[in-house]
Amino acid sequence: ENGITRPKGYKVSFHYNSRVEDMxxxxxxxxxxxxxxxxxxxxxxxxxxxxxxxxxAVAAGKDQVRAFHDPDYVDFLAQVSPQTFADLCAMPRxxxxxxxxxxxxxxxxxPFNLSTSAGADCPVFDGMSTxxxxxxxxxxxxxxxxxxxxxxxxxxWSGGLHHAHRGEASGFCYINDIVLSILDMxxxxxxxxxxxxxxxxxxxxxEAFQRQxxxxxxxxxxxxxxxxxxxxxxxxxxxxxxxxLKGTVGEHFALxxxxxxxxxxxxxxxxxxxxxxxxxxxxxxxxxxLQCGADSLGGDRLGQFNINIKQHGECVSFVKRTRLPLLIxxxxxxxxxxxxxxxCHETALAxxxxxxxxxxxxxxxxxxxxxxxxHGNGLLYPPFQRLHNNECKDADLEGMVKKIDT
Length: 406
Ligand code: VJV
Ligand code: CA
Ligand code: ZN
Known about the structure:
The chain is α/β, with parallel strands linked by helices. The chain has helices spanning about 35-45, 60-65, 70-80, 85-90, 90-95, 130-145, 175-185, 205-210, 265-285, 310-320, 335-350, 370, 395-405; strands spanning about 10-15, 55, 155, 190-195, 215-220, 255-260, 285-290, 325-330. It is built from 13 helices and eight strands. The structure holds ligand VJV, calcium ion (CA) and zinc ion. The site of ligand VJV has 21 residues, from loops.
């Protein structure tokens, strides 16, 4: 009817729970649940749910989260809310994690890099526990479908929170669902390749597996000072010379592709296919986890690249062509209408469907999000406002590929 078909010869499963949309990091915080609502509207509006097995996610259990995270941190996350924060901080068990206060701090930091101040990267907000354990539950259910061979590609757009550390939140990420997933996969698959196209360095995942030769991590990210103030682009790690923990068996099992601002489609395609191709050839993975952060798109509120949705999607297609068990996750993405376009398009690619480029506005509950005159209603080439100066020289990119290859 709508032309959507199930893929031939393989299965795709989709994991989601709309309750993740209820939470708010704060009024002007860049991380918006609305992008997941819009993504759902497009996926359902186009009828892509007919092409997949869809699962309503249930919350992960504390014991599952403890497989990577510190037990005190997990207990804190399970109980925290703006109402309970002060009392929890006062408990001796958690007070020891609170940093000493400084005179001119603008942000009041509590334990585990959490804060109730509005300007914090990792605020404590209403419904936060529910949100965290739900996106984690969705990733773990997706992983279970893959490890039990009930599906070939599993998708969770609410996951992919790559900065969270063992005992600390970081960069909008609280529970590292990616690390938990890979730990599960290692019980079934000899080698797991992690690929991260979010504009930020996947530091939390790299760090977790820095001594693990059965996991190769590969991140593409903006790297270097980002303005006249000389501040580094977050999180400031992921140099090309960072290839894993020196002197351990994990050395050489991390790859980093640090990229200057303004990279275009052609240059990104060259880098991605050259480096990913070589990594797959050399590492011979048994399964792949792909973090599809959409903040690497042009026009992103926080990102600094100029790539289009079509090229972002070609990264997914390239990885899919390996035909290995594949977990597709979300991540960053701060211009909501473009995040939804990209992730809907990538859901179509995963299921071998081609969507009409003009978004049929009658299919979505909130068409005004996609019919803005300035933005147009195309799926793949929304005109991006405010493109970045391209600081990438072809010769430098070629030099990088050679350097990574050794
Ligand atoms: O650059 C930083 C760290 C600071 C200290 C904290 N202040 C708030 C910002 C500067 C050095 N953090 C980054 C974190 C980016 C996380 C990306 C996550 C992902 O996409 O990789 C995966 C989901 C950063 N960049 C921009 C902001 N923070 C930012 C935070 C806000 C904000 C505006 C910008 C927090 C609250 C509010 N506005 C109200
Ligand atoms: Ca990245
Ligand atoms: Zn990001």
